[in-house]
Amino acid sequence: MSTPITNNSNTNATNAVIEKYKLQQPKQNDANTELGKNQFLELMITQMKHQDPLNPQKNEEFVAQLAQFSSVEGITNLNQTVESMASAFNSSQALQASALVGRKVLVPTSFSDLEAGGKVVGVIDIPQPINNLFVEIYSSSSNQPIKQMNLGKQLAGELDISWDGKDNNNQAQPAGKYRFKAYTQIDGKQVPLNTLLGANVNSVTLGGLNNVLLNVEGVQGEVRLNEVKRIQ
Q1: What SS3 string covers 159-192?
Q2: Mind listing the pLDDT tens digit for each residue in 178-188?
Q3: 125 pLDDT above the threshold of 50
């Protein structure tokens, strides 16, 4: 009766390679990545040297091992590339945002500061054509509008507006904070419209990717960099 061949030399050689690298595990991340490549190649070569000559490894299995190694290597390199690109993009955003400190930007808000002898500019977002457009401006100390504007029929889009700092009686108003209200009337009901107004950027908060935030004067909470409509 024939005795089955057991490939002890293959098993022992493979185990020896594994034990060799087990003792070298606690290293830095870069070393671990390089160690994994070397370990894979040495294990594969050792298995080829000590494989059963009566039952050699099939070509398909060998190619599959190489493909697996290439896939892991490719994913590792891709991850490193994406991380580098993300870091560079975030740094670029931070530089752009820091250059805005002390400048005025148009952001989604209903409030804006009027400087002495200055004016307030902004944008009204009109989602669809409307038959009428009204803008009312309130001081911080009054519930009654100091200025009312009827801008008539408007097409869909973004409409630039400007206030010269004067009330309905053409009297110049003091510097300070003012609230803007834009709306249209449909079937006798007021439909509010979004406003974007100029405000000073006081500081910048740097977070992760796509998380550069602006601290804008007069705006509650922080504003994302991609929410800035225009730089004045």
Answers
A1: EEEEECCECCCCCECCCEEEEEEEEEEECCEEEE
A2: 999 999 999 98
A3: yes
